[in-house]
Amino acid sequence: MSNAILRHELKAKVLKMLFVFQTLVSFCFLLNGRMLGQAFYSESVSNGHVTPNPDNLLDCLAFVRHDSVKRYLKLDDEQSKWVEDLLRDTGGDPGSYSVSFSSETEIAKLDRNQVLATARNVVAARESIALAMIDPVQRDKLRFVTLFVEVKRWGIRESLLKGFVGEELGLSEGQYQLIEDKLDLLEKERQSEMRSIGKKIESDIVSEITAEQQELWKKSVGNDFQFLETEQEKRMHRAFAAMGRKPVIPNPDALRECVILLQRQDVAQELMHSDEQSSSFKKASRSMTDPAWVSSMLNDKQLVRVKQLAFRYEAFRIGIHKSMSDGYLGKTLGISKSQADAILKLMPEHQRLVIAAEHESIKKCLLGLSERLDKHQKSTLAQIIQVNCEGVE
Predict the structure, then answer these.
(1) What is d(CA 234, CA 236) in angstroms, rounded to the nearest whole number?
(2) SS3 helix, strand, coil % of the chain, rounded to 5?
(3) pLDDT tens profile 154-195
(4) What's the pTM value of the predicted model, to 2 decimals?
(5) What are phi and psi of 97, to 5 degrees?
(6) Where are the domains positioned within the chain?
(7) Which residues of 49-82 are buried (b: 16+ CB within 10 A; e: fewer)?
């Protein structure tokens, strides 16, 4: 291994240690109630799942912020207002509450158990009201909304084999094996359908730019590429979106920033990294990496493809409409304001197209599995499939 690589790896290790130290110090301050003036209670009932436990009404009520769910549940005006007030008062997370105290002195007098007991009382009171406000039929429908969202977020395989959907169906060991055997084929068909929709949207957008820009677009993005998003990534980006934080998008012209792409397994496979390259990039830091070092680690063909993948990553993360109208890709193509406006006008219709296609593809895939289920399980699955709430994520 060259001295340049060794120096770079040492620099990355030092930076990582400093980051860990800084994170620990910040966490210690957060644990001290004086910094917030509040004590927070948040007790997960999902056991690591990506959606709330469907049996926890308060957590499931978070989905009622969507008008489509309100319509699906047929909430009356009084119920709608109560849910809106609840979501506003709890920051959109009815199952997790902060307990405010009048002073730091009051916080200091309470131990952790007392704080949690106070918070749990708040939760229990809210839950009692929720049970009175939402009738049994509506609660049952909300459970199936939650299960359907799990399928959308986690994918059919994970939700059936590891999630609440599988628990709801009560699958036997034999059924798990039968379902898993058929899932691969159904999932490939579903992904193929969604890729076709993506290509149509891409074609619609590219038709709004000039022939010269279209040629530059082809060179800029290269061949089609599908980023494989891990569940951890999905959770992180959903959390960032909830906090109003923008995703990290590398500048295609800045090799230093493109390190975050070079650390991805799907990109490594596309570029056919050597083991040495992959190991070095994983240890690299986006802020401290020397662009010359990155350039020395890649051949000319890989350098061109990294830039293309950076443009594609921008479109993948923020959407091709925003990427083309106001992103790095749009700036590279020299998109005018009138072109950007025309592209953005396409976005609502394209979003409806994607939502409808995704909804139908999930239903089709779930129906394809029904032959492996007994009568009761088919009935349960049918109720999940019947959920019709567009835009719920």
Answers:
(1) 5
(2) 70, 0, 25
(3) 777 788 878 898 888 888 878 877 777 777 777 788 888 888
(4) 0.67
(5) -130, 150
(6) 32-134, 184-355
(7) bbbbbbebbbbbbbbbebebbbebbebeeebeeb
